[in-house]
Amino acid sequence: MTSPPDRVAVIGDVGGHVAVLRAELVRLGADPDTGRIPEDLVIVQLGDLVHRGPDSAAVVDLVDVMLRGGQGRWVQLVGNHEAHHVADRVFEWPEELPAAAADRLRAWWSDGSMVVAAAFRAPSGDFLVTHAGLTAGFWRSVLDTPVTAAQTAARLNAWAGRTAGALFRTGSMVNRKRPSIAAGPLWAEAGRELVPSWFETRMPFSQVHGHSSIVDWETGELRGSAAVIHITSADPQTRHEVSRLGGGAIIGVDPCHGQEAAPVSAAWVSDRIGAVVTRPA
Question: Which residues cross the membrane (predicted)?
């Protein structure tokens, strides 16, 4: 990275839809053919690049271009669907990636090109970025309550390259049991685990996540308890949702692609940021 960035763009789950990702990169001013990213911009992609859509291998190829050509301005996070290929499998999926694409995911994980978390500071506060969001229970019992987003990202990224451990702790999406307020940052469900986990604990920083949504984007209805719905607002033009709690906000940017791409999706962008932190302590 040759100069400090002024803004960070967080791109949500891609789900195998390469055309959607290419279009968003162009909108942000990046070049998907060369990997060039404007000097004032850092792009964080939240994981779940693969599965569901028809172009998972092409998505992996495109991200590899961005990692090589972005001069450190592309931050690739691991999602639960990448974890399916780089760590012990905890769920079944009918689609198998081409071997070359799966090998590339494993290479990113082992060489540090794909990490768990990023952190940045904006005028509105400190932000932690992970795939599914950090529950209060995980922050407390596993990370020992770090007080800044940068410290938290560093502790999470100490797991980068591993194939087992607390990082891969599942929640109700896999266990099919009652929600866990200590579900891990690759698996926490937004409306049942992530947001409610912070009701009794003041948030030390704000968060941006993908993986799941409180809003049913097909109907516009909010899902979850009355308390979750009361603090959550939604923007159907971007498919972003914001839950406001004591100490910060939890911002969801999962567009919820299926086999067909969602009709709208957009990166969440914050300007006037400080340094983006991704390296482990």
Answer: none
